[in-house]
Write a structure and sequence with these properties.
Layout lengths: L9 H11 L8 E3 L12 H4 L6 H8 L5 E10 L2 E10 L2 E7 L9 H4 L9 E3 L2 E7 L6 H4 L7 E5 L7 H15 L2 E5 L2 E3 L5 E3 L3 E3 L5 E4 L13 H10 L14
Parallel strand pairs: 1-2, 6-7, 7-8
Antiparallel strand pairs: 2-3, 3-4, 5-6, 8-11, 9-10, 11-12
Length: 247
């Protein structure tokens, strides 16, 4: 779901997304951009909400018959996090705090980095969530958990869209999994334009869908058999280097 985002206006964004969700079907997995309700703001003291706040409550309410995924500025235990949430059946079923904070924009000065990776399951698929800047760090993204699908929620600016277009297929190829990257469109509150290019890549790096530069949402059916077929024909993951992540 590739959307423009009203700057630091949760109510307006949630109202718009509620309308867009009417075009989705029961059982779908809906992926929203990074900080879909506020924009990528470095003012967490103004925009961050607790886990029982309006934004998370909206995700829960709209997840009664589908999976809703996106990131929210969250205040938790006195810290601020850029937190990925997956909601289904009216509950939060998974969360992941962004590991690689975008120091170029000062994100590391305002938010606390996450420490652990997350994998959750939906309809028999193992899904690994990651957030925007994480895309540049292949070791953190490395598929050591046999994930079937990686999700990248992003606010990736137009000026660096070539990197986005190059790194998404790279992550799909090296990890032999489907990759979804969902970006925003429009100009944010710091005058940075965003041109979308939300994409779905197959495990060979082929682009199955690119949403272009307009606000839109589209649905694609992923087939697990295709994933298994590729991994059996090209069992490259079995030759991957073994390693352990540490602080």
């Amino acid at each position: 779901m590739q959307s423009d985002i009203l700057w630091e206006k949760p109510k307006g964004n949630l109202e718009k997304l509620t309308t867009l969700l009417k075009d989705t079907e029961e059982g779908e997995l809906v992926v929203l951009p990074e900080m879909f309700a506020t924009g990528f703001s470095m003012r967490p003291i103004e925009i961050a909400q607790p886990m029982d706040g309006e934004i998370v409550s909206w995700m829960k309410e709209n997840s009664k018959d589908k999976m809703i995924c996106g990131t929210v500025a969250i205040v938790d235990g006195g810290n601020y996090y850029n937190r990925f949430l997956a909601c289904y059946g009216g509950d939060v079923v998974a969360l992941y705090d962004k590991r690689h904070l975008f120091s170029f924009a000062g994100e590391d000065k305002h938010y606390t980095e996450g420490k652990t990776l997350t994998v959750f399951e939906y309809k028999g698929w193992k899904i690994k969530p990651l957030i925007c800047y994480d895309l540049r760090f292949p070791v953190w993204c490395r598929n050591t958990v046999e994930a079937d699908l990686m999700i990248f929620c992003a606010n990736w600016p137009a000026v660096r869209i070539q990197a986005w277009n190059s790194l998404l297929p790279a992550r799909a190829i090296e990890n032999q999994c489907f990759v979804v990257g969902v970006n925003r469109v429009g100009v944010d509150g710091t005058d940075n334009p965003h041109n979308g290019n939300s994409q779905l890549l197959d495990p060979l790096g082929n682009c199955l869908l690119n949403l272009g530069e307009n606000e839109t949402n589209q649905t694609v059916i992923l087939e697990k058999e295709k994933l298994h077929s590729i991994r059996m024909k090209f069992p490259f993951l079995s030759d991957a280097d073994k390693f352990t992540l540490s602080e």
